[in-house]
Amino acid sequence: MTEPAPNLRRSPAGWLLAAVLVAFGFFPIVNWIPGGRQAPWYAQVASGWLSGTVIVVGAGLVTAILGRRIAFTARWWESLANQSLRRPLAAGVCLGGLAFLLYAGIAWFVFDATPLHLDEIAQVIQARIFAQGRLYLDAPAFPEFTSALHVLDSDGKWYAQFPPGGPLLLVPGVWLGAPWLVGPALGGVSVALFWGIVRRAGASAAVSLGSVVVFALAPFMAFMAASHMNHVGTLCLALLAWWGAVRHAERATIAMALVIGFALGFGATVRPVDALAVALPIGAWVAWRLVRGTERWAHAIAMLCAMAIPLGLLLWYNQATTGDPLLFAYEKLWGAEHGLGFHASPWGMPHTLAAGVELVSLYFLRLQTYLFETPLPSLLIVLIGAQLGWRGRSFELYWLSTGLLVSLLYALYWHDGFFLGPRFYFLMVPVCAWFAARAPGEVVRAWPGTRGFVVGASVAAVALAGMSVVGDRGRQYAAGLAPLRWPVTRMAEQSGVRDAVVLVRESWGSQLMARLWAVGVSRSQAEWIYRSVDACALDEALVRQEAAGGSVRTEWNRLVGDSAKLIPSPWSPDQSERALPGRQYSARCQHRVLEDRAGTFIWVGLLARDWGSNVYLKDLHELNVRHEALRDSRRPWYLLRSGDGSAGSAPVFVPISRDSALADWGVRP
User: Fold this and answer.
1) Which secondary structure element, helix H or strand E, spans residue 667, and what is its range?
2) How does DSSP assign 59-125, residue by residue?
């Protein structure tokens, strides 16, 4: 995989690459496009880049002045790197093992070993279903009591919206009772595979080992690998495919051809769009080798056959769940608008070319910060390394091609993928780490007299980045999404709440969404209605709909007529609820607002936990009498909500009087 290639930095393509990186990574293009997304934080971040760069440059100058008589040397690092190359397997195991321990520590101490993002929770839910030996569970008779945004409960089936590959990777962790360790394990394997690739890339031992260390310690990589997100699994499979390609180029074997094909096919069952960005460059490489006669047709066919196995299982899973092998669950849940392209999004907003450019701009601007968390722009280091250190290696060509495809494909996707950083660009971390690791050495190589300055600046950048991660970013992540961190089911056992029906008090807005789904409104239509109708008007319309059981399409259109006047609710802590200024709320609606203020809980977090002997249901007030569990007189009733209504307060189990509850719901005891 080290065939010669043109020097990109001296070609028009090289300068075009630099221009795109500078344009999207350093300038707020998103803020220059009217009427769409914005990056209001850009001025503050740019100011931080400026002050951080001054600090780093100042540290470099001071070190260069004070260290004129000091021989800065990297002999110890070169010695360690050379030893690593002499024992590559042991080095890979050590690097991967240390990375695993780091990521597991972050998962435990920062994320409380808990899925916190809605995508994480949905995939853990599906992994728990798989761990039972099933593809889906039977949908409940009244799904509104257990419904969730990313979970389908139609056609008698209950399952998550994501492709099966990501949840399947979590299954061993579910069996062991520790799904939170799967991400760190995949992260550790990714680091070992990256070492297996870069040590064959033709660079010096010091650069190869340095790039692995930068990759493993990059905050974006470390935090993502500590999560339950499927991005790290996709990256691991992408690295496995390219490691197989590197080995196959060294010595073409059927075994490596099978590894390449299986990794690409499995990747498509995890994140199909990412897998496409990974597979196309490898496919082009294989085709080029076939044309040159350096690839055997038997090996290419073996790759396709190995790829077909997981793809066939994906089609079978789709058939078993959605009823159509080509219909993914998220398309069944959200409609065709969920897919790539310039069209209306599932929530009704148009996704245009301008919106796609806005997203690309946002992703690159966020990558500047979240990639390395350095006080100067992260992509500046990458750009310097790419311009000075480009060698046209197949590794570089592959990852740059993949990065370009990722940018193009996700420009076609309407959703803003932000969690722990620009997560849709997670596949770019390896190539960024490679060029960032090259940057200091290439600067010294181009200008030998700058050795002292480069050493001082590098030490300052790394030190400040470490302080940022351990301090601000670590504290930010550790404090986020507190309601989902509480071990509620264990707290119930400790509080003596056993064999009970626990009604979970969600916010009024969440109750409205569940009731919309229950009357047959699709997820996408429900999102549009919820954002376009006053909460009290929506509640009253739902009461009429639930009593009549007929279609309310015409009524929704009438209610949406005042959508331009709506404001976020000034009364409820749930700012997603909409209010029409001047509207007088009924006693029922005022009561719902007071309930919001008294304290609510996030239902979806319970779906990824063991319930023990209790039955947990959403509290839907008068609709509660539908559920058979509430007709079981042997079970006591409890209400679960936050203790004092403030964000992050500990949840409490409040005993409920059966007679009082039934009276409140308008039912005779």
Assistant:
1) none
2) HHHHHHHHTTTS----HHHHHHHHHHHHSHHHHHHHHHHHHHHHHHHHHHHTTTT---SHHHHHHHH
Distance, in Å, from the CA atom of 238 to the CA atom of 260, rounded to the nearest integer, reads 9
Q: What are the structure tokens assigned to 469, written together?
A: 């991660």
Classified as helix, coil or strand, 126 is helix
Per mean pLDDT, which range of 207-221, 364-378, 390-404, 578-592 is the poorest? 390-404
H/E stretch holding 393 reads: none
Question: What are the tokens at 325?
Answer: 């092998």
pTM: predicted TM-score of the whole model, two decimal places = 0.91
For the beta sheet containing 615-618, the strands, ordered from the edge strand earlier in sequence to the opposite edge, are: 615-618, 501-504, 637-642, 651-656
**Token pair listed for 191:** 């680091």
The per-residue pLDDT for range 451-470, each reduced to its tens digit, is 666 766 676 677 667 666 66
Would you give the DSSP letter of residue 586? P
DSSP 3-state of 601: coil
User: What single string gives the DSSP state of each residue in 520-553?
Assistant: T--HHHHHHHHHHS-HHHHHHHHHHHHHH-S--H
Q: Let me know: does 206 contact 441? Beta carbons within 8 Å.
A: yes
What whole-number distance in Å separates Cα of residue 668 and Cα of residue 418? Answer: 49
What is the distance between the alpha carbons of residues 172 and 565, in angstroms, rounded to a whole number?
51
